[in-house]
Amino acid sequence: MFDVQEELKKLPAKPGVYIMHDERDAIIYVGKAVNLHNRVRSYFRKIVGRGPQIDQMVRQITRFEYIVTDSELEALILENNLIKEHRPKYNTMLKDDKTYPYIKVTTGEAYPRILFARRQKKDKARYFGPYSSAQAVRSTIELLNRMYGLRDCARALPRDFGKERPCLNFHMERCCAPCTGNVPEEEYRKRVDMALEFLSGHYDPIIRDLTQKMTEASEAMEFERAIRFRDLLNDVQQVAQKQKMSESIGENRDILGIAVDTSSPDSDGVVQTFFLRDGKLIGREHFYMTHVAGRKKPEILSDFIRQFYGGTPSIPKEIMLPCEPADRELLEQWLTALRGGKVTLKVPAKGQKEKLVELANTNAGLILDKDRERLKREEGRTIGAVKELEDLLGIGSASRMEAFDISNISGFANVGSMVVYEKGKPKRSDYRKFRIKTVAGPNDYACMKEVLTRRFRHGMDEQKELSEKQIDSEFGSFTRFPDLLMMDGGRGQVNIALQVLGEMGLTIPVCGMVKDDHHRTRGLYYNNREIPIDRSGEAFKLITRIQDEAHRFAIEYHRSLRGKAQTTSRLDEIPGIGPARKKALMREFGSIAEIMEADAERLAQVPEIPESTAEEIYRFFHKEETE
Q1: Which of 101, 113, 216, 281 is 20 to 30 A from residue 361's alpha carbon, by CA?
Q2: What's the pLDDT score for residue 345?
Q3: CATH number, domain containing residue 450
Q4: What is the percent of the chain with per-residue pLDDT over 70, rounded to a whole number?
Q5: Helix, strand or coil for residue 401?
Q6: pLDDT tens, position by position, 228-240
Q7: Which of 180, 217, 194, 110 is nearest to 145 (CA)?
Q8: Which H or E run contains 38?
Q9: Are both 410 and 542 inside the same structural domain?
Q10: Are both 159 and 83 inside the same structural domain?
Q11: What are phi and psi of 592, to 5 degrees?
Q12: Cβ atoms within 10 A of the Cβ of 331, count?
C-alpha cells in the first residue's frame, strides 16, 4: 500500500522528474523540479488559488514516483520525453503532431537533385524550410527542375552513365540529361548553384536573366521559346511575390503569439507561429494547447517551446515572444544544445519586431475566437444532441452509444456491424465487424442475437481478466459497456437485444430507431412505446448519423467479403493449384464446368499443368465416383 505522507518524507532535495499516477495506475501528470522534495510536497498542501484543474488532479493521485537527475537541464529533457511518450491527462499538450516539408538539395552527389523531404537529416545535403504548404514545396521543386534542367531521377551518376536512354523529361526539354554522360559536372553544378541562389531568396538576377532570354527569343522570332521563358518568369515572380516580409528583419527567426480561452475549464489555448528564413516569411501555422485552465501564458509558452522544438530539426537562431517564458535560461541552454549553435529567446519592446509579435498575438486571438464559435456549433451537434436524446428517453446518460446493423444478400455472407459514438462523436477505434457463424439464410433476428451475444460475452470475459480499476481505461472496446444500445429497427430488434441482455444479467437501456415506409427514421422505440422525435432537432440528426454509419460499416464489410468470394473458386481448394495454374486452366477451358468435364489426359495437355497435378484435379472433381 502506497502511503503518500510517508513517501513525501523520503523525497530528495535534488533536481529530477516526478510522475503522478491515478487509481488505475495511469500516468496523469509529469513534471520537473529543481528540488523534488519541495516541489512534490507542494501539491499536497492546502493551497488556495492554484486553480480547479490542479485541485482535481491532486484528488486523483494515488501514488507518485520520481527520477533524480544531475541537473535541471537533464530533468527538462527527461520530462519532455516522458510527456511525449505517455501524453498525460493533466499536462498542457500540443495537439498538432505535424511534420513540415523541406526542400532538400543533394549537394553531396556528383549530379545533385532537388527533392521533397519531411525530415532534416544530418547528411551532406542542404535543406531549405520548413514550409507550411507541401503543395508550395512541390510546385517550387518542379519550377526549379524545369527552369535549370535538373534531373529528378534516382540513377546513380556517374556510375550509370549511358546505361539507359534519356527519359521523357529530356525530350520535353525539362532535363539536360546528365545520365548520357554528355553534361560535364562543372556545367551541371552551375545550374545547381543558380537553383540554390533562388532558394536562398535571391530572385533579381534570375528575373533579369529570364527577361533577357525572353526578349532575345522574341526578337529572333523564336516565339515558342519566348513563351516558355515568359511562363517561367511568371512562375518566378509569383514565388517572389509571396515573400513580402521586409529584409530588415534578417536571418532566421520564429515569431510566436498566444491567446488563451479562460471561459471554461476545458478551454484551449492557441499559439500562432510565423516562420522567417533569411528575412522572408515562408509560412505560418497555429497550434492548439490543451489543459491550459489555471495556467499563465509564460507556462504555456514554455510547454509549447519544449514540445514543438523538441520535435523539429529546424530551430532558428532567435525566437521572438510576447512574454518571457517560464525557465527562459534553461530553455535557451536546451535549444542551443539541440541546434548546435546559440539560440536566443527575446521579448521585443519596440520597433518592427514588436509589431510582428503583436501581429502574431492578434492572429492567435482571431483563430481562438473563430474556433470558439466552431466549438459552440460542434457542441450543439454532439454533446447538445446527446443531452437532447437523454431528456427525450428520460435516461441519466447516453455518453457512450453502440449501434448494430446486419447486412446480407438473400442470406449470403451474413455480417454484423457495431459502431460506437462517445459524447456524440464516432469513436472509430472501437468499431467492430462480425461474420455470422451460426445462422444460414436471411434471418436478421437470429443474426442480431448472435452478434449481441458475442459482443457482450467477449466484454464479460475481458472484464474477468482485468481488475475493476482497469475497466473503462485504455483497454479494448468490448470491455466498456454502452450507456445506450441503438438498434436499427423497432420492437423486434429491441426485444432481441433485451433478451440477450437478460440472459447475461445486464441492464442497459435499449432503443430502436424506427423507420417509415421511405426508410427514414420517424421515431424511437423505447420501453414498449414509440416516441415521436422532432426532425429539425439535433437529437434526430445525431440518430440519423448513427443509423447511416452502422449501415455503411456493415455494407462495406459485406462488400469486401463478396469481392473476396468472387476472386476465389473451387480450384483454390486443390493442392498444387496456384494463381498461375488457375489462370492457365481458365484460359484453356473457359469455365469451371468445362474443367470438371475434362479427363486427366486432357487436363495434362495444358502446358503449365504436370501430369500428377492433372490427376489430382481429376480426382478432386470425381472423388464421389472413385470412392
Answers
A1: 101
A2: 95
A3: 3.30.420.340
A4: 86
A5: strand
A6: 788 877 777 666 6
A7: 194
A8: helix 36-42
A9: yes
A10: no
A11: -65, -40
A12: 21
What's the domain count of the chain? 5
Identify the residue with better confidence: 47 or 138: 138
For residue 336, give Cα distances in angstroms to 310, 314, 318, 329, 340.
12, 12, 10, 11, 6
Residues 526 and 583 in one domain: no
Q: Which residue has the cell 502446358?
A: 607
Q: How far is it, in rounded angstroms, from Cα 337 to Cα 193? A: 31
Q: Is 102 helix (H, G, I), strand (E, B) or coil?
A: strand
Burial class (CB in 10 A: 0-12, 13-18, 19+), 580: exposed
- The answer as to whether 97 is a domain residue is no
Cα–Cα distances (Å) from 183 to 144, 151, 157, 312, in that order, read: 18, 12, 11, 38
- What's the count of helices (H) and strands (E) in the chain, helices before strands? 21, 20
**The domain containing residue 575 runs over which residues?**
570-626
Q: Are residues 402 and 497 in the same domain?
A: yes
Domain boundary among 548, 564, 580: 564
Q: Are strands 126-128 and 253-260 parallel, antiparallel or unpaired?
A: unpaired
**Would you call 183 helix, strand, or coil by DSSP?**
coil
Q: How far out from the chain centre does Cα 132 lie?
A: 17
- State whether 329 and 264 are in the same domain: yes
What is the C-alpha to C-alpha distance for residues 599 and 555, in angstroms, rounded to an integer?
42
User: Nearest CA to 496 among 393, 399, 406, 389?
Assistant: 406
- Identify the domain boundary among 362, 379, 396: 379
522 vs 413, 487, 529, 549, CA distance in Å? 29, 14, 13, 17
pLDDT in tens, 375-398: 667 777 788 889 989 999 999 889
The stretch 174-184 carries a mean pLDDT of: 91
Alpha-helical segments (H) within 423-490: 444-465
Q: Which residue, among 306, 311, 301, 309, has the nearest Cα to 269 in the 3D structure?
A: 301
- How far is 160 from 20, CA to CA, in rounded Å? 59
Statement to judge: residues 225 and 284 lie in one domain: no
Dump pLDDT digits (tens) for 312-371: 667 889 999 999 999 899 999 999 988 888 999 999 988 888 888 998 888 888 888 877
Instruction: Name residue 249's amino acid.
Output: I
* Alpha-carbon span 574 to 565, nearest angstrom: 16
DSSP 309-369: HTS-S---SEEE-SSPPTTHHHHHHHHHHHHTS--EEE---SHHHHHHHHHHHHHHHHHHH
Within-domain flag for 501? yes
- The letter for the amino acid at 481 is F
